[in-house]
Amino acid sequence: MFRRFALLLIALVAVATPAAAQDERPVQLTIGGGWTGVYGAAADRIGNGGNFTLGVLFNVNETVGIQGEYAWNGIKNKQLLLPVFPQPLASGGVPSDFFADGNMQYGSANILFSPKVSGRAKPYGITGLGVYYRPVSITTPSVGYTTICDPYWYVCYPTLVPVDQVVGSRSSTDFGMNFGGGVDFKVSDSASIYFEVRYHYVWGPEFGPAVNPLTGANIPAGKANGQFLPITVGFRF
User: Fold this and answer.
1) Which residues, including other chains, have CB under 8 Å from residue 99's CB and lie 6 or more apart?
2) How many CB atoms lie within 10 A of CB 32?
């Protein structure tokens, strides 16, 4: 009797699993977190960090969904050396520590594409557009004068200026795009766990060109374009 009951239970689970995988709620909340990598030229100015995401997914049908999402990505600080001079016309600048840290926040509208599958694991692709807010905070223990033209710090002083003009908080709000994919694992009729990798590209402002007053070298114009790769694990329910 027990063996027959066990076999019947296994058969019922096998039959019910595909049906449960196809049963999507029309509206789902998403929440997740993970690791964010910084790539491109920005990687020399800001470090990798973590992320937190919150969104609403509208399932149009079995294969298409529309998602509104907010995400916060913490960025670890980076230490750079800049020459600091005691006076504007003095020589022999001393390499001094400067630190930059910040975060990236965005709101985006995305489209999810999913193939029809019969199991609990459901792969999907995602792409969308968004508005990205990127603040950065610069600090240093040094006192004196320096020169800098760095698009990723949102500052360009092609002349010797007091250090307190370089340090401080700045930000940039720009448009960007994202694309990637993931896998959604159904854990119940109303909840799932997802694993997702997405590439974000942000079109930033341009700084420069300028001339380095210390060396006379030309400093080409640079754009504060951002490239980020968040890896996120979360829940949909």
Assistant:
1) 77, 78, 79, 80, 138, 139, 140
2) 22
Cβ-count burial of 128 within 10 angstroms (0-12 exposed, 13-18 middle, 19+ buried)? Answer: buried
- pLDDT, tens digit, for every residue of 78-131? 888 999 998 887 777 899 999 988 899 999 999 999 999 888 999 999 999 999
**Cβ(143)–Cβ(165) below 8 Å:** no
pLDDT over 70 (residue 218): yes
Count of C-beta atoms within a 10 Å radius of residue 4 = 8
pTM of the model: 0.84
Structure tokens at 235: 């829940």
Q: Is the pLDDT of residue 68 over 80?
A: yes
Angle ∠(129,42,72) on CA atoms, nearest 5: 50
Burial class (CB in 10 A: 0-12, 13-18, 19+), 197: middle
The tally of CA atoms less than 13 A away on the side-chain side of residue 177 is 2
